[in-house]
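User: Working on a comparison across species. This one is Pectin acetylesterase from Gossypium laxum. Can you predict its structure so I can line it up against the others?
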Amino acid sequence: MEKQKNMIMKLVLLWVLGLWSVSGIGLSRSESFLSYLDEEVTVSPGSTTTLIVPLTLIQGAASKGAVCLDGTLPGYHLHRGSGSGANSWVIHLEGGGWCNTIRSCEFRKTTRRGSSKFMEKSINFTGILSNKAEENPDFYNWNRVRVRYCDGASFAGEGQNEANKLYFRGQRIWLAAMEELMAKGMQNANQALLSGCSAGGLASILHCDEFKNLFPETTKVKCLSDAGLFLDATNVAGGHTLRDMYEGVVTLQGVQKNLPSTCTSQKDPTSCFFPQNLVSNVKTPMFLLNAAYDAWQVDQSLIPSLADPHGLWRACKTDRSHCNSSQIQFFQDFRNQMLDAVKIFSESNQNGLFINSCFAHCQSERKDTWYENDSPRIGNKGIAVSVGDWFFDRTAVKAIDCPYSCDKTCHDVILK
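Assistant: Here's the predicted structure for Pectin acetylesterase from Gossypium laxum:
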C-alpha cells in the first residue's frame, strides 16, 4: 500500500511539473525532466538485490555556511571499501538539473534536489557504486560515496537571497563534503576517482583539478564525467535554450567567482559553465562518457516544447523511425558538434572517451548500462571495462561510435 501511495504521489508530481513548465509559471526546464534513472536511486521496500546505503548529514556544515537551498544540512552516502580497495575511493556527485530563477529555486527547495528534509534516508548503490564484483569489477571493493545534490548550480554557487531565504552554497557544500570524507580516511587514499552524472558530471569537470589538489602527488587521481558534456547548441527554433538557462544559473547563484580563470579570462561567465570551454584546460586525467544524442539535451535543450509549439518534432522526438531526413541530419549535426568539442581534449594521452550513438543519459549509475552482458558497447568493449582500462592504464580508450543508427546495443531513453 505504501509503495502504491508513493507511486501515486510521484505521478502527481510529474503531472504538476509538466503543467507548470508548459504554462510558463517559471520553473526551470530542467526540473520538468525527472531523469529516468531516478527510479534506480530510491529503495524499493523489501529489496535485497542491491546494496542499500544510509544517508549521512554533514553535521559541521552549517557553521561553514555549507547548506542546501533551504538552509538544511547537505549529505552523502558512504559504503566502506575492503581488502585491496580499502584505501581506494570513488566519489560520485549526484545530478538533477539546475535552478535559474528565484521561482524555480523556491520550488526546488521543496524537493530532495534542494533540501535534505526531502532526501531519501537510504538509497540503492548500483552501477559504478555496486559492491558486487560481477556488476562492478574494478571498483566494487573501493570506498564508494554518493554526494547528494541540493544546490542547483553543479556544486559551484556562492551567495544567497535574503528575501526568499535561498542559500546558493554549492561550492561550500563541495568543500565541506570533501573535508568530511578526507577526515573519514580519504586522506590516506592511494587512488581516487571523482565521478558524476548529468549536472554532477558537469560538477566533476568543474572540480576535477580541485579534487586532485586534495591529495599528495603520489596518489593516483582521475575524474569521470558521465552525461556532463552539455553543449551550447541551437534548438529547433533557432534559439539557445540551455545558454539562456545557464545564464540565469550563473548570475543568480554567483557561480562566476568559482569558474576557472583559464576560461573567464577569455570568455563570458556563461560560456565558462559549458564543458566544451572547460575540458581542454583540465590538467587532471579525465574520462568523458556521453551519449552522442544525449536524451536530456534532446528533450530539454534541442527540442523543448516551447521551441516546437506546433508539435512538428513530437513524433520524431519519441520515435526516431518517424523522423524525416532533415530531422535525422539535425541530430547528426549535434553529434558532430559534440565531437568537435572534444577534439583537443582527446589528443591528450591521459584522457579517455566513450561516446556512443545512443539516445541515453547517465550510463555509469545503472546496472543495465554499466556492466551487463547486453550493456552498450563500442566495438567489443562495454562502459565499465572501458573506464577501468583507462583508469588503471591497461590500454588507451578513445572510443567514438559510428553515427546513428548503427549501434544496436543502446539502452535508449523513451522520451514522451
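For your comparison, note: Residues 2-23 form the longest helix (22 residues).

User: Helpful, thanks.
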